[in-house]
Amino acid sequence: MKFTDVILQTSTKILVFIILTFSIYVMFAGHNNPGGGFIGGLITASALILLYIAFDVKTVHEIIPIDFKLIGAAGVLISLLTGIGSLALGYPFLSQAFAYRDLPLFGKTELATAVIFDLGVYMAVVGTTMTIILSIGEDE
Amino acid sequence: MSWLHFAVLSPFLFTLIVPLLNKNIRRIHTGWFVLAIPLLLFIYFLGHFPLDPAVAPVVHSLPWIPSLGIHFTLYLDGLALLLLLIITGIGTLVVLYSIYYMSMEREALHNFYVYLLIFMGAMLGIVLSDNLLVLYGFWEMTSVSSFLLIAYWYQRSKSRYGAQKSMLITVSGGFSMLFGFILLHKIAGTFSIREIIAMSGDIADHALFIPAMLLILLGAFTKSAQFPFHIWLPDAMEAPTPISAYLHSATMVKAGVYLVARLTPIFGGNMEWFWIITIFGLITLFWGSFMAIRQNDLKALLAYSTISQLGLIMSLLGIGSAALNANFSDQALLFSGAALAAVFHLFNHSIFKGCLFMVIGILDHETGTRDIRKLGGLMSIMPISFTLTVIGGLSMAGLPPFSGFLSKEMFFTGVLTAARNMDQWVFLLPAVAWVASILTFVYCLILVFKTFTGPYQPQRLDKTPHEAPVGMLISPGILAVLVVVFFFFPNLLSLSLLEPALHSIMPNLLPPGERFDVSISAWHGFNTELIMTIGIILLGTMLYIYLKNWSGIYDTLPRKYTLNNAYDKGLTGMERMSLKFTSTYMTGFLHNYLSYIFVVMICLTAGTLLGQGVFTIDLSTNSSIELYEFMLGISVVIAAVYIVFSRSRMTSIIAVGSIGYMVSLFFVIFRAPDLALTQLVVETITTALFLLCFYYLPKMKKELSRLRFKISNLLISLGVGITLTLIGLSVQGHNLFDSIARYFENSYELAGAKNIVNSLLVDFRAFDTMLEIVVLFTAGIAVYNLIKLRENRRNNR
Lengths: 140, 797
Description:
The complex is a heterodimer.
Chain A: H1 6-29, H2 37-54, H3 57-63, H4 68-88, E1 98-103, E2 107-112, H5 113-138
Antiparallel strand pairs in A: 1-2
Chain B: H1 3-15, H2 18-24, H3 30-34, H4 36-46, E1 58-60, E2 63-65, E3 70-71, E4 74-76, H5 78-101, H6 109-128, H7 132-150, H8 157-188, H9 193-198, H10 200-203, H11 209-223, H12 232-235, H13 241-250, H14 254-267, H15 271-294, H16 298-321, H17 332-367, H18 383-397, H19 403-421, H20 428-452, H21 470-488, H22 490-505, H23 528-545, H24 547-550, H25 563-585, H26 590-611, H27 627-645, H28 649-669, H29 673-694, H30 707-731, H31 741-745, H32 747-751, H33 756-764, H34 766-796
Antiparallel strand pairs in B: 1-4, 2-3
Helix pairs in contact in B: 1-4, 1-6, 2-6, 4-5, 5-6, 5-13, 5-17, 5-21, 5-22, 6-7, 7-8, 8-11, 11-14, 13-17, 14-16, 15-16, 15-20, 16-17, 16-19, 16-20, 17-18, 17-19, 17-21, 17-22, 18-20, 18-21, 19-20, 19-21, 19-23, 20-23, 21-22, 26-30, 27-28, 28-29, 33-34
Family (chain A): Belongs to the CPA3 antiporters (TC 2.A.63) subunit B family.
Pfam families (chain A): MnhB (PF04039)
InterPro entries (chain A): CPA3_antiporter_subunitB, MnhB
């Protein structure tokens, strides 16, 4: 898959950052507004795919030298560990907790373990989607 | 979490740092670090010693899956302690021995020690678990770690063969045992062994009691290599010798024996239990000793001798169980002596067999062969190894002044007790036991004399033999010293360790507060047992001298009828069968697979829908359809119809994508922003994926297929469409379950989340989500492997 389209490449450079920012917002907003790890992960993946379509696999890999398999594995591990964490504290597996704290800059903020779990989901989704698409895309 | 839990889990935790130690500290053998674990555990468990019967045993419970009655409950009583000390004690010596046996430069030590620690932890778990399902989990973990250790030198095809064989046999036995446990749960309503024992009197009449017993025994017999499942053990000898000494003689194969002993209070009163275990034990005892004589490989000889000794322990437990039977209540204490002999011999066997295996390992290490025909005359070259072999071998043969003599005498007492107190044909038991003991004596002589005496043949050895380094001799040396010490002071052991173990095998035999009479002595006067031993020595020596004259009987049974052959044939036959069956429906055509799925779906769903007559249309609660909804619906239909008639892939992909986007518009209309967002992004990514995949496909051609093919496709697609439409329409008319909406209304109070959908995903049903991402990730890795493996194969060509 290699073709050069100046318009696509130029607009991609700007769009990717907007989409990525939005995806991270969506990921963290999920607790109280539409969004969450799954959607956020997919949006991030779509931003990256756009990058791969606009440029080619090799170029992008030089810019973002990330092994997406590791991201996916780390995500699954994080989700699993939040579950085990509650077990270690004497609660049933995967019990989530939340608390309201005053933080500098943010003011009164809700801190929830569910968000950590969601972060694992996010990483697993990004890692898996990109692994599948890249392995098919790199295939010759 | 208690210290006891931590003790069981500590080997598993330590596995995490073993690879790091091996990688970063190259100068020190990794074994030295690993050695700390069994040593500390041994000291820790010694702290529970001696158990005072007046004080209740140590119990620590940790709820794991309380809704299913699965608790991580650990229960430390006499029987558990006996095995714990064997596991950690022999474990320490084996790790010490392995430091000298496993080369630091050439071997993948991190794998070796990680598997070994997993095994050790699993073994501790088996022995301490009170919950049957937790016990099962640890049980299978030992099978897996044993598999990995047998296949440690996986480059050799014999290692792989042995590993697979042991895995298949022990895991299928374990699986039937799991069924037995579930039946037991159905009968008693609990997975806790102690609770089942407490109600053992009431459950014996249940119809499922005997099936549960048989299934559990199958698990115990496969694990403890009882006839006819013993065939995996000789092939397991491909493992490194420290592993053979540890797993395949001292600990893992004792797990089946342990399970039988542990469950004796539940099943012991049944005569079926008595007969099955006694008979299988004696057959195994005889067959193992008979087969051991013909072996040329020293390790194979020891493997068969282990099988035979396990049969001996098993049969003793069988005879001992009669103590719990109501018909023999007068002789209960006599029969309980057999169970005492069983635990004593279990202990002895671990010691002398561990010692023998280690010495054979030394021989292998120093001479480069384990073949009896090549060895000989090593007595003057390796005097210490010779001494250790004599001690271990004669203890196994049952001669004084070694501890094996004591338990062998007690074994004879046990079978004689059975013969004297039971009628029918029980008189055969002592006869079989005696013949098997003669054969045992013969192979012990072979082991000692064929290896160390006779002509020295240096030209047939790969290396010039010399005595092993001191480090390698420490472990077998300690064991050999123990063999002698326990002959002279058996009551050191019997009062402190064996009596509590006997107590846990037969908890209700004695009135509370009383203790079994367990004093063991070497001299009982000139009784039948002693005459039997003398007979064994005389006849055994004769048989050994004239071995050449009668060894022809081993060739009478053609190779075709051996159990190993049956196993091999069965395995290849099964593979061929399943291949034949699979290839009938796995055609490699995607459209075949899709039609299977769709046909099954139509049959099941439409069948239920129409067969049960539940199809109704109730539109009364629907809101009116707005014009824009109608138009959206029409456009979806148009796009769908377009795909069918489209001539190019690109346009059909775009049409599929547009359907997805329109569906997400529906979600917007119905005020489900989360769903709409997800659908939108999924659609985008899927379209990109389609584009990628279709890039590699050849240009779409006009399908030139037969009419029958087209008609069947048409029927299937119509069927799917109609079925789903019918379901969609009839959903409104049925309210089978209460609405779950109320449960989520308080998501803000319970989860602190304003977004119900998200709190559903990450909090209320987080377990589902977690498994989903595991599945997702697994699928991703599978795609990656499929593509990369194909690439590698292409590159190699």
